[in-house]
Each structure stands twice: as C-alpha cells, then as structure tokens.
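Morning. Coffee machine broken again, so started the prediction first thing and wrote up yesterday's gels while waiting. Chain of 291 residues, entered below exactly as on the submission form.
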Amino acid sequence: MKIIISGSLGNIGKPLATNLIASGHDVTVISSDSNKKTTIENLGARAAIGSVSDAAFLTETLKDADALFAMTPPNLGGQNIIANTTEAGRAFAKAISETKIKRVVMLSSIGADLPTGNGPIAGLYHIEKLYNELNTSITFLRAGYFYTNFYNDIPMIQGAGIIGGNFPSDVKIPLVHPEDIAQAAAEEIVKTSSGKNIRYIISDVRTPKDVANSLGDAIGKSDLPWVEFTDEQSFQGMTQAGIPEEIAKLYTEMGTGLANGKIANDFITNNYSIDGKIKLEDFAKQFASRF
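Came back before lunch.
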C-alpha cells in the first residue's frame, strides 16, 4: 500500500513509519521541517515537506495514495489554536475529498465527543465532524491522556518534591503510550473497512495517585505525593513557566474536564476495551531513565 503519514517523525510518527516500512509498504512522511528530509529518507520513507494547513500541498501529497494517517499538531500557531487546528482539519478534508483516498485513520482523543469543556481537544471534535461528511472509510482513533505528558512534571518533582495538576488524586484517567497509538494506527490503516468507526486506544486506566506512586517508586521517591491544584494555580504555574496564556487556559480547561469526568466519560461508561500493552509501571521505568 501507498501510505501517507502526517506528524513527522515524532513519538507516534516514527514508530508508525518504521512498522509500515518493515511490513513492505510505500510510506511518505509529511513534515513541516525541511531539516527532517534526510532523516525521513534514511528511515526508508519519502519526505513531503510542507504545511498540513495547505490544502493544495496535501492534495498533491495524497494523490494516488491508498491510505492516510491524519494528525494535526495540538498547538498550531500558539494563538487561535482551536480555529487553526480546525482549519488544518478542513485542509485535510478538502484533500481527502479531492483525491478520493480510500482509507483514513485520524488521530483523535478521549473527549472528542464534546464540543466544549475539553481544552485543546475541542479542535478534534470539529475535525471529526468535518471528516464525518466525507465519502471515505475513516477510523477515529481516540487516544487517552499521554503518559509522556508527565515528563513536563520533572522540574516540579525535582524542585518541590511533588507532582500534581488541577484534577484530584482519585479520578480515573484513561492513559496511553505513543507506541501503543502507533501500533493501533498501523493495524487500522491496512484494514479493509467501510463507513466511519471509532476506536479508543488506551494503555491503562489509573488514578493520579497511582501515577505518583508508580513514578515515585521508579525514581526512588516512594513518598511522592499527588497535589491537586486549583484551576487558578494551574494556570498561573503554566504561565510562570513561560507557556502562552491561550495554551495555558486550554490545558487548564482540559484538567477541569478530567476532574469532572466529562472527558473520560464516553470511554468509561461504554466499557471500551483497553488495547494498549504498555502499562503505567512500564512507563515508570522509562520516566526514571529520563528523570
């Protein structure tokens, strides 16, 4: 199959490309960074350098392809993020429609069933709606809260001896490892399917207390506490760390959506399967190597 992957060679794109190339597929990787061209080619793929917001570029890239893994960057532009993310989805939708590509796997998220109250995930809600209007086979791959987000807490652990967020220690959170997303995407993209389908990709469902315990044990801090911050404390902490206000506001809203259970509700109440293989304790070992 001729397969197009967006998302460059990140935590999902690289293992996905490696998997598909090893299986004998003709892979093209989209990247906005021309410096990645040689790295992509050394992996055994073709490089398509351009913007996922450019419908003409996407149409040319998708021409004659069999399948697409569609991923939009979460913080497009740093301002007007929801609008920019949605516009990238619109560009993809136009290219998909014009090229009549037969199979699409879209990276989405838990909480993408909600139009509001989910922070940056709102952009994915709008993209799912756009893709639902297309006449092609699409799987919405709704991923959990990335384990790798906890890498952002390393300075707090090192400096204050705590880990935390604006959600309580006992709320259930569907978690996922990027490698499990890549594996699920590789499975879905080669399927002969029709219509629109939703697949959740979750590696584990745990509480923040479990996260603190597992990460703490792995780094030799068995008493590492999870501290619940207020929304204001969370927002101020991010902005003081140099995160732009719009992004900080969106991530604070996402934390609120995790706290009240709305973001995880569809996955948990409908008892979807946990397909990922990398459990929290497995990730904790990776976290310790980075700490």
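The radius of gyration is 19 Å. Going to sketch it on the whiteboard this afternoon.
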